[in-house]
Amino acid sequence: MTLDVSTEGPQRMLGKDGKTEFVIREATYRDLNDVIAINRKVLPENYPNWFFVEHLEQFPKAFIVAEVGGRVVGYVMSRVEYGWSNVNKGKAVRRGHIVSVGVLPEARRLGIATAMMLRAMKAMKIYYGASEVYLEVRVSNTPAISLYEKLGYKIVGRIPRYYSDGEDAFLMACPL
Ligand SMILES: CC(C)(COP(=O)(O)OP(=O)(O)OC[C@H]1O[C@@H](n2cnc3c(N)ncnc32)[C@H](O)[C@@H]1OP(=O)(O)O)[C@@H](O)C(=O)NCCC(=O)NCCS
């Protein structure tokens, strides 16, 4: 998957249905209530409000939202950390971390998550110096795993009982 995407300003795009227009842009503080509502609706992993605020404060270029008709329908929240590479074992690197991604059910399969992820990944690379990116995903979450594989992520590990209900996570990573 090429990272040949813009990280400047709002980007207007056409969904894969050929008719739905959506806009990809950096999140602002005004979007956080919508982002938090989407997180609570589509994922069991919910965070306190300050957690979203902190990511927006620290990594605003890699906190991306999508709008359809002026309504926020999806988000990607990211961070960049210094740590051991998941791509080149034994090397310490700046690595991006996709913390949370969600799209409302009515706006799915249009390419919105793909577009938000690509922009967040590019921003992690060019603004925050990340050379790779990783994430955790439930081993049962076939749609998300398929999305990440299409973006170039590979399964590099499995974390037993990572989630509070006891489910394992796959660790997936991708060079930037
Ligand atoms: C996973 C999620 C973010 C995908 O959002 P989306 O905007 O629909 O994704 P895209 O349209 O960009 O889809 C890209 C690819 O992902 C895969 N995919 C997405 N939804 C899928 C589904 N329901 N079943 C199988 N594959 C799916 C497909 O490979 C798809 O490509 P295709 O449509 O050409 O077949 C969305 O389903 C969601 O919010 N799910 C709940 C929250 C969640 O699981 N987040 C990830 C936690 S790690």
UniProtKB/TrEMBL annotation:
Domain N-acetyltransferase as annotated: residue spans: 22-176
Family annotation (Gene3D superfamilies): 3.40.630.30
EC number(s) per entry: 2.3.1.255, 2.3.1.258
Domain of life: Archaea
This protein's UniProt keywords: Acyltransferase, Cytoplasm, Metal-binding, Transferase, Zinc
Entry's Gene Ontology molecular function annotations: metal ion binding; protein N-terminal-methionine acetyltransferase activity
PROSITE patterns named among the record's database cross-references: GNAT
Catalytic activity: N-terminal L-seryl-[protein] + acetyl-CoA = N-terminal N(alpha)-acetyl-L-seryl-[protein] + CoA + H(+); N-terminal L-alanyl-[protein] + acetyl-CoA = N-terminal N(alpha)-acetyl-L-alanyl-[protein] + CoA + H(+); N-terminal L-methionyl-L-glutamyl-[protein] + acetyl-CoA = N-terminal N(alpha)-acetyl-L-methionyl-L-glutamyl-[protein] + CoA + H(+); N-terminal L-methionyl-L-leucyl-[protein] + acetyl-CoA = N-terminal N(alpha)-acetyl-L-methionyl-L-leucyl-[protein] + CoA + H(+)
GO terms under cellular component: NatA complex
Assembly and oligomerization: Homodimer.
Family stated for the protein in its record: Belongs to the acetyltransferase family. ARD1 subfamily.
This protein's name: N-alpha-acetyltransferase
Species for this entry: Pyrobaculum ferrireducens
Organism placement in taxonomy: Archaea, Thermoproteota, Thermoprotei, Thermoproteales, Thermoproteaceae
